């Protein structure tokens, strides 16, 4: 009887439980991964349900879809050629050393990914800071969650995507989903919202498009892109005007209300109606539904977050929760639906430009001393904060002349992507570790093929802050190596003599010590505890923070902390802080030359830059390429019919794709999914204007014009 290995999906932040069962004997060369996915009804988050991406994930294990040996470019402009691991690692070590010797440690950059396991994120941050000695490290999660993280950290003193399990959603009274489309991004999560409605609760969706999620809502508000900050302020105005403020909660558990109240009162509902384009009666109705329920939640995703005012926008939605007493109480609160598979854990363990493991701040002397102690280096040897992701990419070929990149494909996924591609091409040296030959890997001097989810053990942290064990279920092909082994091999070649563990559990044990006492404290979590904790209960897994209990202490350490802030917020005085947010226009507003808004997003059958999912037949058949969604009135003005090629043009470039004519989008807005390279690369057009706090680029709104196109 073939055994089934319980594990988790490699893709999004829901981290659905799945089983992998071998379907035959190992293939002689180790490739081809004869496994099938089986349901795991014991895992409470998805109860066996998987979307097409998760169900077909084993296809990327197969030889035809992935890299199976190192590739090197032996001369500038020459082809990528096969090489031994020794040659490949020697070349990377030499390439990085040469640049470091000529231009200093900060001339070497490191770019990570939100799909890397906790162990890899931790090891990559440590590698950058102690082996390379560079401050220039950041990762693609900056493009995903940084605004929600900044706003939550300010308001609550701690950023955990959801401060409560998803299981609380159906039990609350009203949920406002802002710029989130789980029907396409994480379909198994949709049941939480349908159960909410089945239980008599209400669902409000805020999105410029009538998405599949919006179709399920009791109320859909479709603001102009970039105006959801004004919408939140207008709703707070109505809360105050209607006497719906929970003054006792505000007085007892918050700070900064006077300024937040004043900002909201300056946003008259009629003004908000004009700015957002949302009819005032619908805004009033949303306030009634939110306040009439005994408990309510606001959940955001990339819509409000990927803006040049993303931190303030999220802050304004948090203000709405705080003013109405909908935070720090059972079944109420604010949360972010994180996107990438380890979007939560990836931001906690040190691959962010300004952070150390345990979600510690890099400029905090006590944090530096603690982590430096674990790493066996003097605190003063640790570099300071570096550049954020887009700023780092923008500096490539300038003062950053070499780059080590793991698990990211910025040539497709970064804003102003043609410029980023040009910067990547201008590097003196590029090494990419990836599973597949992505568009960015194609430009590398050395490509290091690495193992993937089913072939290795490691931990991830889901959008609920639930730490999970991904288990090795199949053997990797002989020509690939784990990211941890890559870092181990490079550290040795670069003269690091203290040892750089390549075993995931050994890395996790070090991560536990490094995170101890920090905001994201994993010190009480172990692989053994994680394995035991996936026992079919609602609290399966372990929720951080989970501090190590002192020797001899009694009481259940068990599952960590599924629900945060019920007694106090994590700020120094225990009070949540209102943001003093004011509406302001997007960095680029429509004008005569570029009269429309562009907004971007995902489709059901593809994931992020598509590097993996574009290699899966079933997914490609379902979503074979990009498209431009436009309203029938706009299509009629252009003379474009469904399927006609149209060009979306911004100040940064143009992207061409077939028109998809639909009444489900505002007439002043067009939409493109961002999963594809080439002519239809949506990010050629997007705007890298950055949020001043989170450094999040403004993916979600820029000014464009749309033209009929001669291109096919
Ligand atoms: Fe995987 Fe996310 Fe789909 Fe679940 S919803 S199967 S985690 S991609």
UniProtKB/TrEMBL annotation:
Residues 2-65 form the 4Fe-4S Mo/W bis-MGD-type domain. InterPro entries: Asp_de-COase-like_dom_sf (IPR009010), MoPterin_dinucl-bd_dom (IPR006657), Mopterin_OxRdtase (IPR006656), Mopterin_OxRdtase_4Fe-4S_dom (IPR006963), Prok_molybdopt-oxidoreductase (IPR050123). CDD domains: MopB_CT_Fdh-Nap-like. Keywords: 4Fe-4S, Iron, Iron-sulfur, Metal-binding. SUPFAM superfamilies: ADC-like, Formate dehydrogenase/DMSO reductase, domains 1-3. Residues 539-562 are annotated as: Disordered. PANTHER family: NADH-QUINONE OXIDOREDUCTASE SUBUNIT G (PTHR43105:SF10), RESPIRATORY NITRATE REDUCTASE (PTHR43105). This is Molybdopterin oxidoreductase family protein. The lineage of its organism: Bacteria, Bacillati, Actinomycetota, Actinomycetes, Kitasatosporales.
């Amino acid at each position: 009887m073939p055994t089934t290995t319980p594990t988790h999906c490699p893709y999004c932040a829901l981290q659905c439980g799945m089983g992998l069962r071998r379907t035959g004997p190992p293939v002689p060369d180790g490739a081809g991964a004869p496994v099938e996915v089986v349901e795991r009804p014991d895992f409470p988050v998805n109860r066996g349900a998987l979307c097409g991406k998760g169900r077909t994930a084993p296809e990327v294990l197969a030889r035809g879809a992935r890299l199976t040996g190192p590739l090197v470019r032996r001369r500038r402009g020459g082809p990528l050629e096969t090489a031994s691991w020794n040659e490949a690692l020697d070349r990377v070590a030499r390439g990085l050393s040469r640049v470091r010797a000529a231009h200093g440690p900060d001339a070497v950059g490191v770019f990570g990914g939100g799909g890397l396991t906790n162990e890899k994120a931790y090891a990559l941050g440590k590698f950058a800071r102690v082996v390379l000695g560079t401050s220039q490290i950041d990762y693609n999660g900056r493009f995903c969650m940084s605004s929600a993280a900044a706003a939550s950290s300010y308001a609550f003193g701690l950023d955990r995507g959801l401060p409560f399990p998803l299981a609380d959603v159906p039990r609350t009274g009203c949920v406002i989903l802002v710029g989130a489309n789980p029907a396409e991004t994480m379909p198994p999560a949709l049941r939480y919202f349908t159960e909410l409605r089945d239980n008599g609760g209400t669902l409000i969706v805020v999105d410029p498009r009538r998405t599949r999620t919006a179709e399920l809502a009791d109320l859909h508000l479709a603001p102009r892109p970039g105006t959801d900050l004004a919408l939140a302020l207008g709703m707070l105005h109505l809360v105050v005007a209607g006497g719906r403020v929970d003054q006792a909660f505000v007085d007892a558990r918050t700070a900064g209300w006077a300024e937040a109240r004043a900002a909201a009162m300056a946003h008259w509902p009629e003004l908000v109606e004009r700015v957002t384009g949302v009819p005032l009666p619908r805004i009033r109705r949303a306030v009634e539904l939110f306040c009439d329920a005994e408990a309510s939640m606001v959940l955001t995703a990339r819509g409000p977050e990927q803006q040049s005012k993303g931190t303030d926008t999220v802050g304004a939605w948090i203000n709405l929760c705080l003013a109405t007493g909908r935070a720090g109480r059972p079944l109420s609160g604010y949360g972010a639906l994180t996107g990438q598979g380890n979007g939560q854990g990836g931001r906690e363990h040190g691959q962010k430009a300004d952070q150390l493991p345990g979600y510690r701040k890099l400029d905090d002397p006590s944090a530096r001393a603690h982590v430096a102690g674990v790493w066996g280096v003097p605190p003063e040897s640790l570099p300071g904060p570096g550049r954020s992701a887009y700023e780092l990419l923008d500096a490539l070929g300038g003062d950053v002349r070499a780059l080590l990149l793991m698990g990211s494909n910025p040539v497709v996924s970064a804003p102003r992507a043609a410029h980023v591609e040009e910067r990547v091409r201008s590097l003196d040296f590029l090494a990419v570790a990836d599973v597949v030959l992505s568009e960015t890997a194609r430009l590398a001097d050395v490509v290091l093929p690495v193992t993937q989810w089913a072939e290795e053990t490691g931990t991830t942290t889901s959008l609920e802050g639930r730490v999970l064990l991904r288990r090795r279920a199949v053997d990797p092909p002989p020509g690939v190596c784990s990211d941890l082994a890559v870092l181990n091999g490079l550290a040795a070649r670069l003269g690091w003599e203290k040892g750089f563990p390549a075993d995931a559990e050994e890395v996790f044990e070090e991560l536990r010590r490094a995170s101890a006492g920090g905001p994201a404290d994993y010190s009480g979590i172990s692989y053994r505890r994680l394995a035991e904790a996936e026992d079919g209960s609602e609290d399966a897994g372990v929720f951080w923070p989970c501090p190590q209990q002192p020797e001899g202490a009694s009481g259940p350490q068990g599952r960590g902390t599924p629900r945060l802030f019920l007694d106090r917020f994590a700020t120094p005085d225990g009070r949540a802080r209102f943001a003093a947010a004011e509406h302001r226009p997007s960095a680029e507003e429509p004008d005569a030359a570029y009269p429309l808004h562009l907004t971007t997003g995902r489709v059901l059958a593809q994931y992020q830059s598509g590097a993996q999912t574009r290699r899966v037949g079933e997914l490609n058949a379902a979503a074979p390429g990009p498209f431009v969604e436009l309203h029938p009135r706009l299509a009629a003005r252009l003379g474009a019919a469904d399927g006609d090629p149209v060009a979306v043009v911004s100040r940064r470039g143009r992207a061409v794709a077939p028109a998809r004519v639909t009444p489900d989008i505002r007439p002043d807005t067009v939409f493109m999914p961002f999963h594809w390279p080439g002519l239809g690369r949506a990010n050629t057009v997007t705007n890298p204007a950055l949020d001043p706090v989170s450094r999040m680029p403004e993916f979600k709104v820029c000014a464009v014009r749309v033209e009929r196109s001669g291109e096919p």
